[in-house]
């Protein structure tokens, strides 16, 4: 049980039926409470559920005392010592460590036109002390535990103490003892042992006892405090010391001997029967219950069970009761308080911007942005100043890194106000994030605190951020700061439109895309050679050509890095070009010889080839599929093989034709006549030669008739393979003239084709000599 816990008196209001009227019920109008105990008061209330068809709702509930008529939670006499709570239509008030008699009244306000309602008459709480009353009847001393001013109040069970140590069989209001000179007795109500009566001697006033001057002491943080008690020992005192009840040492060591307290605790010179523990520069950690203990020569003494003095170390605080705006200024009503109890009787001094303005517990002051208010306990002005309460200026947001905000790096946002004391415990910082601009419903509260920390910021954290600072005087937002998280290109993608297989002459777009911040620039490559750079990521062919085909990729790049796309092969297709035909061997073809015709055409995809021979109509002679060229052989040529030959190249994209003319010539002899001056003698000579030649041919034909019959019809011209060819012999006559000599005629076969033909012809050669007349 805490040191402040005392007797709890619970007053229950019995909830009645909800009626359509204003009112409330207390279960009792008067109660008694032992000084230092805890009192809890409960009450129900009622009101009409509707007014003119509109629902009525409760706006506020509070308790007040009869002479103040204001919320006890804002009353310096009770500040920190009361707690109010409601559950539905039942509200309660808990008063800790009650110290004074007072009347407590409940009030609620609503949103209806009449305002609220006060439940009367209230509850009167009378604070009383316990004391031991000693009488001396004939059969022993009678000790009775009574209250000082609540005679009608009678608890059911009590606790009795002897020299501060509990007596196990003492449970009634009356306890009887024999004549006792040495020991003292005290009492308490069972269950609320902290509210113990002062010790009382039975016979001799010099019995063993300890009486603390103050059971509750409130000290301002940083001040010095004295805890004093008066004691009697009824004999020689052997030991005496002060200790804390929360000490971890069961032996209750002396505080002044603890090295942790060196220099801060001491025992001033004692007077007879008085002991004082002095604590310097008190801290929050010094808040505890302190007790005094002694022993006498006979081994007895004062026990450690009964309560001692409870020290509460408090700081001065400023509580804002109301704020209003007048002419762009704040007008605030404020309360200076501590968690100390009212009997501390502290007085305060108010300061504005460090200058004294007014003494007292409350103040109303006009403030501008940047002004601050403090209050201090007058007795300890240098050590008991409250934290500065500022009229907030607009805060700003600072970033820990002024460079580009790169993904993966740490970043800290700090909310600050120029020339401001950030140690103020009353300030409340909060961070917000706006996901979409100008959409307040998307504002997200991130966290509280002056700093917003990203250990590794992500691109999804890109947004507007701002902070707010709030204290008892108001709330102020900062200007938003846009956090743009940048990163190098994460990927690079190349697409082709309409498709990677493209017809010659089409319009083609190559698009390079990427995810990067800032936006990427794009570099284009064909067959790993740079083509161009384009920040829009587009490379176009208005009319694509076959030479534009190749392997393409792009590179996406910003100042933080780069990445290449995968490659795309662009195939430009087109119809076969006009075929090119070559003839081998070249020139005129002779009967019986062979000719190779080769046709080729540029095409994508590769062309199919067809050969045709034209004789009024086209007749296909050969077709080759998907070859780069087509070759056609004409062998054992005949005269009828003469004519036009056509090559057609075709594919899925179109077709094209070319033709060539082949002329087959028969085997022949040629006669060459050379005359000098074209004279009549020359003509005569020619005639003679022709006659002679005819004769020789006839003779030769007769001599080789059998041989010719056996010759093959497939022989070539040089071998006289066909009948017609062997039967026709031409003479080649060459005339040679000179101005002085005769004219000769040489008759020889013309261009023999093979050895045996040549031999046959040589056997029948005859020469004629014609001389010039």
Short description:
The protein has 773 residues and is mostly beta strands.
Please characterize this protein's 3D structure.
With 773 residues, this protein is mainly beta. The protein is 6% helix and 45% strand. The chain has seven domains: 120 residues, Immunoglobulin-like (Sandwich); 106 residues, Immunoglobulin-like; 75 residues, Sandwich (Immunoglobulin-like); 87 residues, Immunoglobulins (Immunoglobulin-like), CATH 2.60.40; 80 residues, Immunoglobulins (Immunoglobulin-like); 86 residues, Immunoglobulins (Immunoglobulin-like), CATH 2.60.40; 91 residues, no CATH class. It has four helices and 62 strands. The strands form 17 sheets. Strands 43, 45, 46, 48, 49 and 50 form a six-stranded mixed beta sheet that branches. Strands 1, 2, 4, 8 and 9 form a five-stranded mixed beta sheet that branches. The N terminus and C terminus are likely disordered.
Keywords:
773 residues; Immunoglobulin-like; 7 domains; six-stranded mixed β-sheet; five-stranded mixed β-sheet; 6% helix; disordered C terminus
């Amino acid at each position: 049980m805490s040191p402040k816990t005392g007797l709890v008196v619970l007053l229950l209001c019995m909830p009645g039926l909800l009626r359509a009227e204003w009112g409330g019920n207390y279960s009792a109008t008067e109660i008694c409470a032992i000084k230092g105990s805890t009192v809890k008061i409960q009450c129900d209330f009622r009101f009409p559920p509707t007014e003119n068809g509109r629902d009525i709702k409760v706006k506020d509930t509070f308790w007040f005392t009869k002479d103040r008529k204001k919320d006890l939670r804002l009353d310096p006499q009770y500040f920190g010592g009361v707690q109010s709570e409601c559950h539905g239509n039942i509200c309660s008030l808990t008063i800790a460590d009650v110290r004074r008699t007072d009347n407590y009244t409940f009030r609620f306000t609503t949103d209806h036109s009449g305002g609220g309602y006060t439940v009367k008459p209230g509850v009167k709480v009378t604070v009383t002390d316990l004391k031991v009353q000693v009488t001396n009847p004939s059969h022993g001393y009678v000790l009775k535990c009574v209250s000082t001013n609540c005679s009608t109040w009678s608890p059911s069970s009590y606790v009795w103490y002897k020299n501060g140590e509990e007596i196990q069989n003492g449970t009634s209001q009356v306890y009887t003892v024999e004549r006792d000179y040495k020991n003292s007795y005290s009492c308490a109500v069972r269950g609320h042992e902290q509210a113990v009566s002062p010790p009382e001697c039975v016979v001799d006033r010099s019995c063993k006892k300890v009486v603390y001057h103050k059971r509750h002491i409130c000290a301002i943080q940083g001040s010095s405090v004295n805890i004093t008690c008066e004691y009697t020992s009824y004999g020689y005192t052997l030991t005496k010391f002060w200790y804390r009840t929360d000490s971890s040492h069961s032996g209750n060591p002396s505080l002044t001997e603890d090295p942790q307290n060196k220099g801060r605790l001491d025992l001033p010179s004692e007077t007879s029967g008085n002991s004082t523990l002095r604590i310097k520069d008190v801290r929050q950690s010094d808040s505890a219950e302190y007790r005094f203990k002694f022993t006498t020569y006979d081994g007895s003494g004062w026990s450690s069970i009964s309560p001692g003095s409870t020290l509460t170390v408090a700081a001065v605080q400023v509580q804002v009761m109301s704020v209003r705006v007048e002419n762009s200024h704040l007008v605030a009503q404020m309360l200076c308080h501590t968690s100390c109890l009212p009997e501390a009787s502290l007085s305060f001094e108010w300061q504005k911007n460090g200058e004294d303005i007014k003494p007292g517990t409350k103040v109303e002051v006009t403030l501008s942005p940047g002004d601050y208010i403090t209050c201090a306990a007058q007795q300890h002005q240098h050590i008991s100043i409250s934290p500065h309460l500022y009229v907030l200026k607009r805060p700003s947001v600072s970033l820990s890194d002024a460079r580009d905000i790169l993904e993966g790096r740490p970043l800290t946002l700090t909310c600050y106000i120029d020339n401001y004391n950030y140690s103020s415990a009353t300030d409340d910082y909060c961070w917000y994030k706006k996901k979409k601009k100008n959409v307040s419903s998307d504002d997200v509260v991130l966290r509280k605190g002056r700093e917003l920390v990203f250990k590794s910021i992500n691109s999804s954290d890109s947004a507007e951020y701002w902070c707010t600072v709030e204290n008892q005087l108001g709330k102020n937002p900062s200007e938003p700061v846009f956090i743009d998280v940048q990163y190098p290109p994460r990927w690079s993608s190349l697409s082709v439109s309409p498709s990677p297989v493209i017809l010659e002459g089409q319009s083609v777009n190559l698009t390079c895309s990427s995810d990067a911040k800032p936006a990427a620039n794009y570099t284009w490559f064909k067959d790993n050679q740079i083509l161009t750079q384009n920040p829009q990521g587009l490379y176009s062919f208005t009319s694509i050509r076959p030479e534009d085909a190749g392997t393409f990729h792009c590179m996406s790049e910003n100042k933080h890095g780069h990445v290449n796309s995968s490659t795309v092969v662009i195939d430009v297709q087109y119809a076969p070009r006009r075929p090119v035909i070559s003839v081998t061997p070249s020139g005129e073809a002779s009967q019986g010889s062979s000719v190779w015709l080769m046709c080729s055409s540029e095409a994508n995809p590769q062309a199919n080839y067809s050969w045709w021979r034209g004789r009024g109509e086209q007749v296909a002679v050969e077709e080759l599929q998907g070859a780069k060229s087509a070759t056609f052989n004409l062998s054992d040529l005949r005269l009828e093989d003469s004519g036009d030959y056509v090559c057609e190249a075709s594919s899925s994209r179109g077709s094209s034709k070319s033709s060539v003319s082949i002329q087959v010539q028969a085997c022949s002899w040629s006669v060459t006549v050379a005359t000098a001056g074209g004279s009549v003698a020359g003509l005569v000579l020619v005639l003679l030669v022709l006659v002679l030649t005819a004769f020789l041919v006839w003779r030769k034909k007769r001599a080789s008739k059998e041989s010719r019959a056996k010759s093959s019809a497939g022989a070539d011209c040089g071998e006289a393979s066909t009948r017609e060819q062997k039967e026709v012999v031409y003479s080649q006559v060459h005339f040679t003239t000179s101005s002085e000599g005769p004219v000769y005629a040489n008759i020889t076969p013309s261009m023999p084709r093979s050895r045996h033909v040549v031999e046959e012809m040589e056997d029948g050669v005859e020469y004629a000599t014609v001389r010039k007349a």
